[in-house]
Write a structure and sequence with these properties.
Subcellular location: Membrane
Main location: membrane
Keywords: ATP-binding, Kinase, Leucine-rich repeat, Membrane, Nucleotide-binding, Phosphoprotein, Receptor, Repeat, Serine/threonine-protein kinase, Signal, Transferase, Transmembrane, Transmembrane helix
CATH class of the largest domain: Mainly Alpha
Low-confidence stretches: 1-51, 735-746, 867-893
Number of domains: 6
Membrane topology: Single-pass membrane protein
Bound molecules: 2-acetamido-2-deoxy-beta-D-glucopyranose
Strand content: 15-25%
CATH topology of the largest domain: Transferase(Phosphotransferase), domain 1
Protein name: non-specific serine/threonine protein kinase
Shape: elongated
CATH architecture of the largest domain: Orthogonal Bundle
């Protein structure tokens, strides 16, 4: 028997031992044989893009330009699997019907050995089905079928001497990379059509052999070739029909138990050859196998007839040099796979027969079988660790140096630059890749070359750092990295070995590489020192300062809180000067300057702001008196008086702590061009507020408090523009002093002081009313009490009176109001201002009266205002318009 197809008649032998009841199977590699089968092959052609690629399949269409999906399997172009060769289309006449994988070949006109590299996902020590297909198809138009050797790793797999067929093996590699190599044996240019790898379950096809080569795989009674997806492992099953056989079939599906890892296709198991007479056997005889390998036969059964209480027991015999046999009992619709192995007998023949075992009620059946010959794969090769490491180096450097197949074998094809140990399982002893135009980094797989003694990578363009693993190669004695572009520093271990003399290390001409033990160790030490001192020098002071600032801030915050507590909640409103400094942040911000001293900004907390009036040192006042007065003032409370919330009474420093008025004084609002112009309504409201405050001092306090210094800069505005009178009572505090030091004591302000004071020398309620009248004039005219002219200054009353007397009130109204005043109220207001400033104090009104008159003025303005709509709005638009409009018309109060 040979395995040759080539369209010739397949050789077979028929031996009849008994009469008609002995049946002979043909031992055929059907796919190998003829074009009829090629047509069957083609049944699976065509593209089906809807399917996914089965996991772990590697399917390479050699010579194809692009990837595609065929029958649910992703076939890839071979460009990522091979570095050499050229793509050629076949010219066979029937190429239109060919399965698509066979339409192109890759041929290898150059080099003795050219290899495909497969790297299955599951890696080494797993079982795979590997199939290489060849269709010559006169691709080179020489009409001569090339003959060449196919190698799996370092071992001859098959000599391809036919023009159409495939070689298939079940293989458990000991390396992660699998080399499939074509050897030119000077009988034509090697070529290949397709290469396929399928992962198998590791529990099936277990033998002591390293590889099993497929001889036959038959689907008894089948009608067409079966493969993926019917067979999940993509085994190719050829139909076997012999006229002499009887067949039995079922439509029921075979219960594929999950634990039946052979996963024989259901379609296959549903038909079986059957002998009618239980005394007869199903037998199979081989031709001379001309082989001294062990043969493995796998029998696949499934009971497909209802047994109805009977039993089908089988006896299976395989006969060669010795015989092997086994028994089996079948269960309905359950698959069963068995295997036997034997060597061919002295005539090179092998036979098997399946007969009814003793006690069986039924004749034998057989659904399918496979025949494999064992392959030991014992050729000398590189040890697997080193082989995989070298494949890693090859992939990393993408060498085009004929690094193909096994690195060390055959010895005449040893990879350029390598030396290998002299044994059947060779290790790599040295690599010399000097001047090889290498780029990139040193590949990590070199770390696995434990036997290497010499590594020469000099004179390349290698970059990156010199890896630490070089220092761990136990046998390395020569390392030449000269003339590259390495960076960083040479690992300490290498430098130490070099110093100790156990390593010849050459690392020169790498401009950015630090290559001295000193440099290396110092650098590290100093780096650590520098980093530590940096931390000490920079971070520590920053931390300490931050800590101090934080602590101080916290302390200050606590102090402020206790001061606030005391000021706002207790009756004792006295604070120390040191505390004044804390709350004013050491008198940082000046917010005003009055007759009695400067005013500073202070904060008790985020919420409570204060104004601190520091009384000038020149005011000499008996300590007790100041304290007494200040204590009285702290209990005067009215919403239109600026509250005194505390005082400081120390010999050198006297201070008053007031509530903070964020909008400053009225004078500023009337004269400063940068502030928003106060409307007439706002001015009236301020007048009412101030009048009410003064009225309270005059009539609400016992004894009455005469302000003595009413003026627009003493009327302060808070954030809601509410007016409050400040500095009340201060003149009295200093009154005693004013008797003796008249010049230094402020007693009223020029322009506001009642002219009759000079006659009486006494401040009275009516002198406050005069000052208030001046304030009213200022509000309506926007001008100061003393109007500065180019030639002479003029008092506001003297300026306004002539206009009023002539009835030209409009001419004195602040032009900034832009005429938007209510004229009745203005008339009444001016009248009131005039009455307040009458020269005879007795004719001036009481503040009581002033307040009521001003409120009437305010009412006049409010009544003249447009009202909010009383009726529900007609629609939303109108309403929103009205509400916005009216809002802007009303004063903020
Ligand atoms: C089966 O074969 C044996 C031997 O050839 C023969 O004696 C017997 O009659 C056969 N039985 C049937 C049912 O044909
Ligand atoms: C590597 O090969 C070059 C020539 O290609 C040679 O000069 C050099 O000495 C070799 N290195 C070693 C370590 O043998
Ligand atoms: C290292 O390689 C360089 C350049 O190829 C060469 O000149 C030098 O002699 C080599 N050193 C050793 C020790 O072989």
């Amino acid at each position: 028997m040979d395995y040759v197809g080539n369209g010739r008649q397949v050789s077979s032998t028929i031996i009849s031992l008994l009469l008609k009841s002995w049946f002979i199977f043909f031992w055929v590699l059907t796919i190998l044989c003829n074009s009829k089968q090629a047509a069957g092959y083609n049944r699976y052609g065509g593209r089906n893009l809807a399917s996914d690629n089965p996991s772990g399949f590697i399917s390479i269409d050699c010579g194809a330009d692009e990837d595609y999906i065929d029958n649910g399997i992703l076939y890839k172009s071979d460009r990522d699997f091979v570095d050499t060769g050229i793509s050629r289309p076949v010219t066979a006449n029937n190429s239109g019907n060919l399965r698509v994988q066979l339409k192109n070949v890759r041929s290898f006109p150059e080099g003795r050995r050219n290899c495909y590299v497969l790297k299955p996902e599951k890696g080494k020590d797993n079982t795979y089905l590997i199939r290489a297909s060849f269709l010559y198809g006169n691709y080179d138009r020489k009409n001569t079928t090339p003959i060449f050797d196919l190698y799996l790793g370092a071992n001859l797999w098959w000599t391809v001497d036919w023009d159409n067929g495939y070689v298939e093996t079940i293989y458990t590699p000991s390396t992660d990379y699998i080399n499939v190599c074509l050897f030119n044996t000077s009988k034509g240019v090697p070529y290949i059509s397709a290469l396929e790898l399928r992962p198998l379950d590791n529990t099936i096809y277990r033998t002591t052999a390293k590889a099993l080569i497929t001889m036959q795989r038959s689907d008894i009674g089948g009608r067409s070739i079966l493969r993926y997806p019917a067979d999940v492992y993509d085994r190719i099953w050829n139909p076997l029909n012999v006229d002499l056989l009887n067949f039995s079939a079922t439509n029921s599906s075979i219960s594929q138990g999950n634990n039946d890892a052979y996963k024989i296709p259901d379609t296959l198991l549903r038909t079986a050859a059957k002998e009618q007479n239980a005394t007869c056997s199903l037998s199979y005889f081989s031709d001379s196998l001309r082989s001294n390998s062990q043969f493995y036969v796998y029998f696949h059964f499934a009971e497909i007839e209802k047994l109805q209480g009977k039993q089908r027991r089988l006896k299976i015999d395989l006969t060669g040099q010795r015989s092997a046999s086994t028994n089996a009992t079948l269960d309905y619709l359950k698959p069963l796979s068995l295997s036997l192995n034997a060597m061919p007998d002295s005539a090179g023949q092998l036979q098997f027969s399946i007969s009814a075992a003793k006690g069986s009620d039924l004749p034998p059946i057989l659904n399918g079988f496979e025949i494999y010959s064992a392959k030991e794969m014992q050729n000398a090769s590189t040890v697997s660790e080193d082989a995989d490491a070298m494949m890693g180096v090859k992939q990393a450097f993408r060498l085009i140096r004929n690094w193909e197949g096994d690195p060390c074998f055959p010895s005449e094809l040893i990879w350029a630059g390598l030396t290998c140990s002299n044994s059947n399982a060779s290790s790599i002893l040295s690599i010399n890749l000097s001047s090889s135009n290498l780029t990139g980094e040193i590949p990590a797989s070199i770390a696995n070359l434990l036997s290497i003694t010499s590594l020469d990578l000099s004179n390349n363009e290698l970059t990156g750092s010199v890896p630490d693993f070089l220092g761990k190669l136990p046998n390395l004695i020569t390392l030449n990295l000269t003339r590259n572009k390495f960076t960083g520093s040479v690992p300490k271990v290498l430098l130490q070995k070099a110093e100790a003399g156990s390593l010849t290390l050459s690392v020169g001409e790498n401009p950015d590489l630090c290559a001295s033990l000193k440099c290396y160790s110092k650098l590290k030490k100093y780096l650590a020192l520098i980093i530590i001192s940096c931390i000490i020098a920079v971070l520590l002071p920053i931390l300490m300062v931050a800590l101090v600032i934080y602590k101080r801030r916290k302390q200050r915050e606590n102090l402020k809180r206790s001061i606030e507590e005391r000021l706002l909640k207790s009756k004792n409103r006295q604070v120390r000067y040191s505390e004044i400094l804390i709350i004013s942040d050491n008198l940082k911000t000046t917010i005003g300057e009055g007759g009695f001293g400067k005013v500073y900004y202070g904060a008790l907390s985020d919420k409570t702001q204060v104004a601190i009036k520091l009384l000038s040192a020149s005011s000499k006042q008996g300590p007790n008196e100041f304290k007494a007065e200040a204590q009285i003032l702290t209990v005067v409370h009215h919403r239109n008086l600026v509250s005194l919330i505390g005082y400081c009474d120390e010999a050198e420093h006297k201070a008053l702590v007031y509530e903070f008025m964020s909008n400053g004084n009225l004078r500023k609002h009337l004269s400063d061009p940068n502030t928003k112009v106060l409307s007439w309504m706002e001015r009236l409201q301020i007048a009412v507020d101030a009048a009410q405050g003064l009225e309270y001092l005059h009539n609400g306090c016992k004894p009455p408090i005469i302000h003595r210094d009413m003026k627009t800069s003493n009327i302060l505005l808070n954030e809601r523009m509410q007016a409050k009178i400040s500095d009340f009572g201060l003149s009295r505090v200093f009154a005693n002093e004013s008797d003796t030091h008249l010049s230094t004591c402020p007693a009223g302000t020029f322009g506001y002081v009642d002219p009759t004071i000079h006659l009486s020398g006494n401040f009275t309620k009516k002198s406050d009313v005069y000052s208030f009248g001046i304030i009213l004039f200022e509000l309506v005219t926007g001008r100061p009490a003393i109007i500065k002219g180019s030639e002479y200054n003029i008092h506001i009353v003297d300026w306004a009176k002539p206009f009023i007397e002539e009835g030209n009130i409009q001419d004195i109204i602040d032009p900034r109001l832009g005429g938007s005043t209510e004229s009745c109220s203005v008339g009444k207001f001016v009248e009131l201002a005039l009455s307040c400033t009458r020269s005879t104090p007795a004719e001036r009104p009481d503040m009581n009266h002033v307040v009521s008159q001003l409120i009437e003025c305010l009412k006049m303005v409010q009544d003249a205002m447009p009202q909010m709509p009383q009726m529900p709005p007609k629609n939303i638009e109108e309403f929103s318009y009205n509400s916005i409009g009216s809002e802007s018309l009303f004063s903020p109060r």
